[in-house]
Amino acid sequence: MLLLLILILILILILILILIFATSGGRTQALRRQVTGMDARQALRPQDGAFGAVLPGARPE
């Protein structure tokens, strides 16, 4: 009887941990997006890397 109760408690804890880790990915991405201030348009825009050196006048201001 006691063993069954312990197994049920362990299963409940595992399910809670799975739910926490499954939902924490979206939250960390949203927080990272808030901290960096980057949205989809900025992510798709070429940065000041390879394109900046090749096409110096082609970047939008």
Write the layout of secondary structure elements.
Blueprint: H1 2-36, H2 40-44, H3 50-54
Structural write-up:
The longest helix is centred in the first third of the chain and has 35 residues, at 2-36. 74% of the residues lie in helices and 0% in strands. The chain has helices at residues 2-36, 40-44, 50-54. The model has no long low-confidence stretch (mean pLDDT 70). It is mostly helical and 61 residues long. The chain contains 3 helices and no strands. It is rod-shaped, with a radius of gyration of 23 Å.
Give a summary of the structure in a few sentences:
The chain has helices at 2-36, 40-44, 50-54. It is mainly α and 61 residues long.
Q: Could you tell me the mean pLDDT? A: 70
Distance between the termini: 71 Å
* Overall radius of gyration: 23 Å
What is the count of β-strands?
0
- Based on secondary structure, the structural category is mainly alpha
Strand and helix order? HHH
Fraction of residues in helices? over 70%
- Poorly predicted regions: none
Record keyword descriptors for this entry.
61 residues, mainly alpha, rod-shaped
